[in-house]
């Protein structure tokens, strides 16, 4: 029941957000020119969704009670995420406006009473602080409901009192609702329908013209609805940020990093909820958009100042950096529709403070983009009118595809920053910290979005490298969890990563990139499976029929059928594009990458800059994996050439690893170094399958110190051929 309601909810919500919603989507049998019937269908559908959400919330009551008694915060966070999903569809201004106000009032407060009951269970067991982010994520949809009621002349405060909704309690646990906030409700969606289609009789006689006109009206209504939702979400984000100020001040003074990072995660979620629909932004009044965005930055500055003044920036980097992608996306989209927000932000906040705590917003670049759009003749107020030509759309696509790359960087950076915290938490068996980190990772991956059209705009090599880097970083964290035997305790949070990861793999595969094979070559897929993540990528790599028995490698099985995209790479796939000469060239390029990183690594080691070392190692892993991903093609290359390249790569790699080891930084880079094992294993397996006596060939490379490799975590068993154990 929960799954079906979530699927239904997400489908409906997608229509609202994308601006494609029409009442007939809910009731195909109703003619689009029947406003009364369509409004009734919308109202009935949303009313049913309210009942489903209330049932979902009520169903979690016994589970939450048991989880609280057992202090299983991962169960609570997972459940709150499900609840958020079930109520998110209800947070649409246009949809709620079509529900009878009396019914809407009853439904909203019934839902809030049920939600209050389970939040009190959490609060009574003193677990609210452990679930701050997940609780705060509920605010956006609730605020929209409250604002719609207030806009329809409902005394929300009085109704709350009468229904038993304790607004003070909601505020105390992190959901501070403004009962006086209102939103603009388009009169065209009013259920009265009094002035809808005055020429109805003539319309029926000449349906062809009416279809065209009404289509435009429908688009306008959907865009107005979507833009209203953006404004409501901006208001909610501002409220979340402002409401956290007292908690931040106290937490920073007490050096309570967990409270601060949890709050920042809530802010990121609220900003991400704004979406990336340029059409929705374009339909917002320029002054309204500017005022809200600047207000958000002003409120955020207050929190960042508390962090900076109390010297907590470094400890909160894992939560500060993820804010960068959604903030830059917001600025980019605003600029793309002609609203120069950047200049106003520069005049309103201390941009240097943002940079000092780790937020590079690129304000100057965005300001220029905004000015250019404005001077390009998009009209008074900087709003781009509807119907402007294709160049505008292309700009939006470029902006959004750039956002995908930025979000991939942010997600990878988040995992990198979480590594030291995971090490400590796993050593101390601190499940709460690990679960909280996994929840942040899930949010960052979900933020990437499922649009194949957007992914197709990203350079294939850039997209591949970034996705592989993400999996490599995630593997490091999963290895820590597995080694500390904490997999079962974190199972729900781990499994929650599966859907967004598979969705990402599916979308990347759908634009023609054999990402499945590259992932299997870069990471230990068995580890993912053992810990509970079935991502639809086979661990083995098949070198090719007749190339040699017993290699034990299988490049190519693709994304699982459940993901909805056939991405498999059979024995011959890609041979036309990736010739053996091309792969050998890539092999040499991978070795060159290692060589060029030597001076960077030396400087980084001198400065004890572990972040640079880890990032460099991840890029090396990705470059080696890109070669191994085409093992079926590599197998057709000269065995001697392959062997030479393999050992030259190891010689250069040893130089880098010795630089790290000589500076006593190997333990700090342990996870990234261990990530080299999987792609090297693939290459070694190819050599063995070709009949190469690797052990004999190795004797010619006297500089290679196999015991050194093993000591730092790269275990190459050349005597056993393909046996490289991590």
Automatic annotation (TrEMBL):
Give the signal peptide range. 1-19
The domain of life is: Eukaryota
**Compositional bias (Acidic residues) spans?**
195-222
Query: Region annotation Disordered: residue ranges?
Result: 190-223
List keywords of the entry alphabetically.
Answer: Signal
Protein name, as recorded:
Secreted protein
> What organism does this protein naturally occur in?
Melampsora larici-populina (strain 98AG31 / pathotype 3-4-7) (Poplar leaf rust fungus)
């Amino acid at each position: 029941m929960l799954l079906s309601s979530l699927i239904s909810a997400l489908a409906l919500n997608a229509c609202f957000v994308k601006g494609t919603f029409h009442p007939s989507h809910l009731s195909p049998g109703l003619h689009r020119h029947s406003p009364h019937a369509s409004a009734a269908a919308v109202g009935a559908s949303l009313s049913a969704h309210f009942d489903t959400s209330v049932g979902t919330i009520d169903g979690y009551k016994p589970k939450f009670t048991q989880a609280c008694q057992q202090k299983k915060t991962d169960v609570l966070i997972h459940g709150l995420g499900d609840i958020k999903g079930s109520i998110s569809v209800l947070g649409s201004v246009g949809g709620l406006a079509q529900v009878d106000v009396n019914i809407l009032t009853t439904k909203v407060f019934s839902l809030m009473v049920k939600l209050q009951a389970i939040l009190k269970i959490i609060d009574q067991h003193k677990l609210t602080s452990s679930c701050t982010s997940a609780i705060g994520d509920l605010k956006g949809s609730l605020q929209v409901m409250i604002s719609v009621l207030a806009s329809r002349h409902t005394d929300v405060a009085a109704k709350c009192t009468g229904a038993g909704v304790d607004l003070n309690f909601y505020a105390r646990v992190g959901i501070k609702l403004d009962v006086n906030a209102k939103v603009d409700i388009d009169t065209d969606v009013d259920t009265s329908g009094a002035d809808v289609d005055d020429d109805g009789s003539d319309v029926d006689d000449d349906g062809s013209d009416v279809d065209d006109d009404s289509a435009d009206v429908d688009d306008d209504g959907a865009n107005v609805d979507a833009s209203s939702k953006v404004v409501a979400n901006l208001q909610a984000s501002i409220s979340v940020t402002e409401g956290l100020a007292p908690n931040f001040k106290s937490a920073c003074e007490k050096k309570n990093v967990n409270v601060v990072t949890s709050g920042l995660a809530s802010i990121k979620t609220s900003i991400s909820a704004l979406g990336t629909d340029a059409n929705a932004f374009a339909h917002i009044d320029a002054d309204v958009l500017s005022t809200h965005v600047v207000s958000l930055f002003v409120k955020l500055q207050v929190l960042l100042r508390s962090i900076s003044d109390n010297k907590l920036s470094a400890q909160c980097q894992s939560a500060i950096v993820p804010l960068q992608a959604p903030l830059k996306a917001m600025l980019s989209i605003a600029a793309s529709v002609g609203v120069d927000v950047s200049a106003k932000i520069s005049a309103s906040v201390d941009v240097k403070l943002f940079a000092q705590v780790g937020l590079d917003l690129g304000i100057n670049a965005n300001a220029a983009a905004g000015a250019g759009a404005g001077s390009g003749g998009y009209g008074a107020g900087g709003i781009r009118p509807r119907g402007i030509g294709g160049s505008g759309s292309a700009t939006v696509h470029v902006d959004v595809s750039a956002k995908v790359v930025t979000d991939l960087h942010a997600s990878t950076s988040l995992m990198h920053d979480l590594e030291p915290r995971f090490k400590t938490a796993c050593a101390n068996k601190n499940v709460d910290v690990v679960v909280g980190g996994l929840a942040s990772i899930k949010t960052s991956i979900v933020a990437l979005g499922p649009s194949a059209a957007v992914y197709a705009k990203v350079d294939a090599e850039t997209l591949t490298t970034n996705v592989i880097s993400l999996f490599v970083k995630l593997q490091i964290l999963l290895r820590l969890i597995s080694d500390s035997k904490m997999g079962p305790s974190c199972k729900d949070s781990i499994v929650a990563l599966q859907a967004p990861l598979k969705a990402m793999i599916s979308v990347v595969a759908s634009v023609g990139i054999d990402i499945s094979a590259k992932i299997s070559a870069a990471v230990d897929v068995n580890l993912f499976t053992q810990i509970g993540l079935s991502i639809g990528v086979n661990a083995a790599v098949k070198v090719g029929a007749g190339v040699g028995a017993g290699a034990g490698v299988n490049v190519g099985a693709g994304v699982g059928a459940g993901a909805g995209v056939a991405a498999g790479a059979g024995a011959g796939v890609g041979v036309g594009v990736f010739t053996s000469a091309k792969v050998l060239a890539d092999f040499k390029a991978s070795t060159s990458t290692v060589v060029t990183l030597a001076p960077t690594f030396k400087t980084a080691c001198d400065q004890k800059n572990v972040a640079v070392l880890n990032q460099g190692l991840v890029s090396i892993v990705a470059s080696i994996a890109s070669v191994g991903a085409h093992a079926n093609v590599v197998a057709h290359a000269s065995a001697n050439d392959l062997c030479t390249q393999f050992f030259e790569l190891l010689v250069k790699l040893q130089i880098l690893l010795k630089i790290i080891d000589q500076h006593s930084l190997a333990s700090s880079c342990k996870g990234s170094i261990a990530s080299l094992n999987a792609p090297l294993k693939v290459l070694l397996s190819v050599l063995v399958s070709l009949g190469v006596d690797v052990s004999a060939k190795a004797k010619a490379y006297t500089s290679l110190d196999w015991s050194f490799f093993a000591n730092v975590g790269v275990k190459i068993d050349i005597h056993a051929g393909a046996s490289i154990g991590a």
